[in-house]
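Data availability excerpt. The first of two example chains:
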Amino acid sequence: MSESPAILLTNDDGIDSTGFRALYDALSEFADVTAVAPADDQSAVGRAMSHEVSVVEHDLGYAIEGTPADCTVAGLESLCPNVDLVVAGCNKGANLGAYVLGRSGTVSAAVEAAFFDVPAIAVSLYVPAGGPGDDTPWHEKATDPADYDNAARATTYLTRHALGAGVFEQAEYLNVNAPMPTAGDPAEMVVTEPSTLYDMTADHDEGRIQLHDRVWERMRTGDIPDPEGTDRRAVVEGHVSVSPLTAPHTTEHHEALDALAETYGAD
């Protein structure tokens, strides 16, 4: 990689979000950064893809009327095809756990890059809900670029060193989750794997069903069984979580399925 890596920067919160600008400014200090990001909020759209999108020039690069996956494809195939790395973020709100990976637009932008054989880093900020005496909703927090300092510091470090260290010879993308800064030293970085905790509920009441992810409430109270080494445990304990992941679905040999296939059509 050259001394000034070329980076495609995208996200799902939109090109004018605070977290996006925080990463853009941090990465631009040493890299050639081109923004190719959604024109507006595209949170939790997963890998949704459009057939056609409009693009307009923006002070930071290009704003796309489309999804994060659209942005990755448009950037790598048309707008800035010769990049060393795709960075997606910084998302306001953590993307933790195996079940979240397919829902997140931020992570999906990184996954899309993997299919182009371009290394990628997805970056998200854990914004804790208010505790006792703090009634501010989490989505009204993290409005200052300084709130993203841990995320920006971790991203710049990984961007500078991961390619040369051979990280992407095994991992296709990194899922990074950072806590908001607190008084004291910057957050420590730990390597993790996605948590398998799943606690979705569905309450049916008079023709409507309320879908609710109880994991966030459990995080707020500390009631999480996630073991050491998982992404959620690391972030709740104040660390920067880095999960090295691969994008293609894996397959395994299944003798039971082989037996079924052999008798297909026989009955």
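And the second chain:
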Amino acid sequence: MQPVINPNYPGLSVRVADEGFAAYIWGSDFSFEVAAYGAAQIGAPVAQWQVTPITPYRKCYGIDPEEFSSYRDAADSAIFMAYLDDQPVGHLVVSTNWNGFAHIDELAVHAPARRHGVAKALLDVAQFWSRKKKLPGIMLETQNNNLGACRLYERCGYVIGGIDHLRYRGIDPNTAEVALFWYRLFENPLENPFSSSASPRLVP
């Protein structure tokens, strides 16, 4: 796949992951601040969710660059890396799920590079990858304490298809963390995935 650039951020590009993936992972900060929990409702926009503020804390998921090593050379999966001015700042792992949807296994952006369109560019590439494989849509999971991610997915056309209040109770029986399953359905398989001016375009 050729590099992809975003016209709104000329220094931003997305490429297939290369041998620098592990070094980028170890050198990046994927933590984010949790300041509230949202009471998600299917069919209700994020802005209408009841939000419970909490004492802010930093959360970081441990990311292992070897976990998805087999995805790089497989026909039904891929790893993409985002670059700002040729510096790696984000990545996305996507695969074909058992139910026929593309599944975003991992999406992360280096903390200092956020709010530069990185996550949106990676999601656009995942959409391009999924449509090229003629899949019916994309699915992913996030949690009700990552409201920034929820707003992003909503802006990108994803809707909540399921809410699981028990998923994390085995880790912490008192947790308030709830799993949210988001879906981006391709209603028109012939629709141009990059029809909007804000979408990235392929370049030589």
